[in-house]
Amino acid sequence: xxMSVKKKLFCAAGLIVNWVAYIxxxxxxxxxxxxxxxxxxxSGYDFPPLWKGMPxxxxxxxxxxLIVPVYNSEDFIDKCLDSLCRQMTDYSYEVVCIxxxxxxxxxxxxxxxxxxxxxxxxxxxENEGISSARNKGIELSAGRYIGFIDNDDTVxxxxxxxxxxxxxxxxxxxxxxxxxxxSSDGNKLRET
Length: 192
Hints:
Blueprint lengths: L4 H19 L9 H10 L19 E9 L6 H9 L7 E8 L5 H11 L3 E6 L4 H11 L2 E6 L10 H12 L9 E3 L5 E4 L1
Parallel strand pairs: 1-2, 1-4, 2-3
Antiparallel strand pairs: 5-6
Helix pairs in contact: 3-4
């Protein structure tokens, strides 16, 4: 189907708005979603907007949500959670543990942390893989910012403070930090 130049421009604009709305759900739009969809349809944008697939996000009640997919990690999840729960920070944060169908003692370990720390949130699901676990964590998160931590990672005690200070001081959308890769016996392999 051949489209006019005007229709192509409207569709391109619709794609850009759609993309921004998908990755930046905090953007406040002054027109209702139904009206925005009608504008897109009237301009030739004839497929469903991406934001229809967005999960219902929780109210933002803390500064940071750290999402930890957990799968059969009983040998190292305690070190990860120790480092996350013992942060030296002025910021509020939560640790969202997604138990992705672990068949070992991982769930019992994270339940112990949830009893001890009131900022640890647990959700259990059938094993669906790390991407599904991270997506569920995003859906359950209440943080203004979202971070991902692997269940075998540990972070420095000023991790939350440093990243959020940097984000707030620079009004950043994304913060990235370096890391040190360690061997299982505790030797430093590489620093990035």
